[in-house]
Amino acid sequence: MAVRVTGDPGHPPTRGSLCTKVSRYLERTYHPDRVLTPLRRIGRKGLGKFEPVSWDRALEEIAQRLGAIAARDPQAIVPYSYAGTMGLVQGEAMAQRFFNRLGASRLDRTICASAGGEALQYTLGGRIGTDLEQFENSRQIVFWGTNAVASNLHLWSRAQEAKRRGARLIAIDPYRSLTADRCHEHIALLPGTDGALALGIMHVLIREGWLDRDYIEHHTLGFEALAERALGYDPQRVATICGIGAATIERLAHDYWHVRPTAIRLNYGMQRARGGGNAVRAIACLPALAGHWRDPAGGLLLSSSDAFEVDHAALTRPDLLAGRTPRTINMSAIGEALARAQPRIEALVVYNSNPVAVAPQSSRVAEGFARSDLFTVVLEHFLTDTADYADMVLPATTQLEHLDVHKSYGHLYIVANNPAIEPLGQCLPNSEIFRRLAWRMGLTDDCFAETDEQIAAKAFVRCGAAPYDWERVRREGWQRLEVPPVYAPFASGNFPTPSGRCEFFSPRLAQMGLDPVPDYVAPYEGHASAPDLARRFPLAIISPPARNFLNSTFVNVQSLRDTESEPRLDIHPQDAAARGIGEGDWVEVFNDRGSFTLRARVSDRPRPGVVVALSIWWKKLTADGKNANEVTHQLLTDLGRAATFYDCLVEVRRVVR
Ligand SMILES: Nc1nc2c(c(=O)[nH]1)N[C@H]1C(S)=C(S)[C@@H](COP(=O)(O)OP(=O)(O)OC[C@H]3O[C@@H](n4cnc5c(=O)[nH]c(N)nc54)[C@H](O)[C@@H]3O)O[C@H]1N2
Ligand SMILES: Nc1nc2c(c(=O)[nH]1)N[C@H]1C(S)=C(S)[C@@H](COP(=O)(O)OP(=O)(O)OC[C@H]3O[C@@H](n4cnc5c(=O)[nH]c(N)nc54)[C@H](O)[C@@H]3O)O[C@H]1N2
Ligand SMILES: [Mo]
Fold first, then answer.
1. pLDDT of residue 307
2. Could you give the count of Cα atoms lying within 13 Å of 138 in the half-sphere of its Cβ?
3. Cα–Cα distance measured from residue 581 to residue 571, given in angstroms and rounded to the nearest whole number
4. For 423, which DSSP code?
5. Nearest atom within ligand 1 for CA of residue 549
6. Residue nearest to atom 45 of ligand 1 (CA)
7. Which of 247, 258, 461, 651 could lock 309 by a disulfide, CB 3.0 to 4.6 Å apart?
8. pLDDT 10s digits, 305-336
9. 440: left (phi > 0), else alpha (psi -120 to 50), else beta?
């Protein structure tokens, strides 16, 4: 039995501190509601009524159903997975081998990070940035679209250290988040307008000549084109777009040039709107213009993912497709796909994800999952909103029970996940479930016989400059990539783009017929871009994660849910007064797509015109069985085909419950 979860004080990026959620991991693993046997549906889809069945029976039935569909058209089978575990063994290794071998549809995993990921790809050449451990040496840190206190504790603690040493902290966020609260300055712009703000800052940098000309000349591509673009974004115009003062833009640009080193912690807030990709591209140009990459404590960090050389081919075996090119389904529009995709989706296999709660336009997603002609298998720890629609639920292990190896998207360490306990009940690791399913379906390729240890041992090509040594990682628990101790990835250029430069102008985007230079792309749903809609639904809603939840994970852990208490809508006093809404009143948030009901919390945290519903609640644990994704839509971002959760207009009214 596991008795305690603690951090390792010797692990440099975390220094042994755990976030509140993970410190409760035992409550989750030993939760009385854990699914401990395979379950077979006995009630209507969505009701969550199941009977236990043996593994043998469950696998046999799934193998038969999937086998019959695959014999007609394997593309009618669709995997659906994301971030439940981000481990390289229990994530996409055995699972994708299985789907590749079948020739199932592929899944475009766009629900979180692909807008910014592609933006960085086209600008810097990859998801690489400032070392998290360097942030304590920064003199100024800009938290751009990120509530680090809640979602990135370990970077936040470095920023606290920097603050103690005199650094200035700035938050750019429509909402006074826990992070904005603790910064020296909070710039509350309108949602989805960050691209304009970045261009406005550039405008001032260029006008004033606050430019590292030497860096620009040697390490960037397309300065003239970018300068021409920025010319159109004078502070007055940008102020109108962003709903902030022109003087604020002038001051931001002034400080961005004069305070050195300045680091930007860029995250996902601005990526969840139509122009998210262009916004990230524009912001990612700033450090090269001002020369901030020269200093290890300057520059920008969105993600460190591409510092890790994961051996995707060895893990997921795309060669098993044997020349077939199955269609791709975008996970951010799964509601639409379940209703309309041709060939029709006949089977869904869900693992590491809870789409009925987390995917946009939830009522459409639930309708899709409720289709009587759809065969759904869900690998889970709990009967989530999604599992309730399954034909078969398969009990999966938690991180205490299985073996894995992780990269990071914030720091530079490979981490081993050694199991601490035997699997509870009849739970099996995802890898083993797919292994057994493959055997049951008569797939005899050698790769289905590989053990988790063997998979973990081939997860990485290298460990930075050194060979990757799984045995060592496993023994020591973690290992820093072999990169210089004082890491400044772009201090002398070396961008992994085709030109080797930071690409203000992207020849690749031009070749695809897309705008090669970053621009401001207005939201789908904004007052300026959709005035008619905005007359009916004048409030912009954003639904970022609550501090004590990890997306929809941990929502059913009582101690954490008690801390969050209940779903609440933060609304500005002006907006509340105009609607006769008082503190604690029940309110309905609605638009043409749907509605959900929660209690109002009247405060000046959101800027006027913006309401905030911290998320992602399990629908079945709310008052009306609905959550914020009831009102979000399935339209995609400009780059990366990502979801646009924070590009959403609603109206709010008081209701009596
Ligand atoms: N506690 C906790 N930690 C998490 C997660 C979690 O669910 N809970 N999720 C993990 C995952 S999967 C992810 S992707 C990351 C997310 O990490 P972050 O991207 O840092 O997400 P948030 O902390 O929600 O911060 C987003 C902030 O952006 C603001 N915002 C919304 N719209 C806009 C906009 O248009 N412009 C700007 N500038 N800001 C905007 C929101 O108000 C919010 O405060 O966190 C990870 N860490
Ligand atoms: N409105 C709104 N919607 C959002 C967001 C938002 O900010 N606002 N954020 C978006 C973001 S950033 C993301 S990343 C997505 C996240 O969406 P998901 O990837 O679906 O993440 P979770 O909601 O945490 O659900 C993960 C599920 O995987 C299960 N799980 C965990 N480990 C394992 C395992 O080892 N095996 C198996 N079989 N299951 C496991 C957990 O029990 C949990 O139910 O949501 C997106 N949705
Ligand atoms: Mo995410």
1. 97
2. 34
3. 9
4. P
5. 8
6. 151
7. 461
8. 999 999 999 999 999 999 999 999 999 999 99
9. alpha
Percent of the chain surpassing pLDDT 70: 100
In sign, the C-alpha dihedral spanning 174, 176, 179, 184 is positive
* CB of residue 79 inside a 6 A radius of ligand 2: no
80 C-beta closer than 6 A to ligand 2:
no
Evaluate: CB of 394 within 6 angstroms of ligand 2: no
Residue keyed to tokens 């309905």: 588
Q: How far is the CA of 439 from the centre of ligand 3 (A)?
A: 33
| Ligand 1 centroid distance, CA of 545 (Å) | 6
If one residue of 268, 552, 614, 649 were mutated to test the ligand 1 pocket, choosing by the most ligand atoms within 8 A of its CB, it would be 268
Nearest CA to ligand 2 atom 12: 112
Q: Over range 184-201, report the average pLDDT.
A: 98
The answer to whether residues 220 and 284 touch, using CB atoms and an 8 Å cutoff, is no
pLDDT digits (tens, 9 = 90+) for 586-605: 999 999 999 999 999 999 99
* Cα distance between residue 100 and residue 77, in whole Å: 11
Q: Which helix (H) or strand (E) holds 28?
A: helix 25-29
Q: Does the beta carbon of 26 sit less than 6 angstroms from any atom of ligand 2?
A: no
Q: Would you call 452 helix, strand, or coil by DSSP?
A: helix
Does the Cβ of 112 fall within 6 Å of ligand 1?
yes
CB 646 within 8 A of CB 190: no
Which of 616, 626, 632, 650 for a ligand 2 pocket mutation test, highest count of atoms within 8 Å of Cβ?
A: 616
Give the whole-angstrom CA distance, residue 614 versus residue 591.
18
Query: Do 359 and 332 form a contact (C-beta atoms < 8 A)?
Result: yes
Ligand in closest contact with the CA of 268 = 1
Give the containing element (helix H, strand E) for 68: helix 55-72
505-530 burial, b at 16+ Cβ within 10 Å, e below that, comes to bbeebeeeeebbbbbbbbbbbbbebb
Q: Measured between alpha carbons, how far is 256 from 144 in angstroms, rounded to an integer?
A: 13
Q: Render pLDDT for 255-267 as a digit per residue (tens, 0 to 9).
A: 999 999 999 999 9
Torsion of CA 32, 38, 39, 45, to 10 degrees: 100
Closest ligand relative to 630 C-alpha: 2
- Ligand positioned closest to the Cα atom of 596: 2
**What is the SS3 assignment for 613?**
strand
Which residues are paired to 262 by β-bridges?
A: 140
Distance (Å) from CA 551 to ligand 2 centroid: 5
Q: Is the pLDDT of residue 657 over 90?
A: no
Q: Confirm or reject: Cβ of 545 under 6 Å from ligand 2.
A: yes
Q: Are 155 and 132 in contact (CB under 8 A)?
A: yes
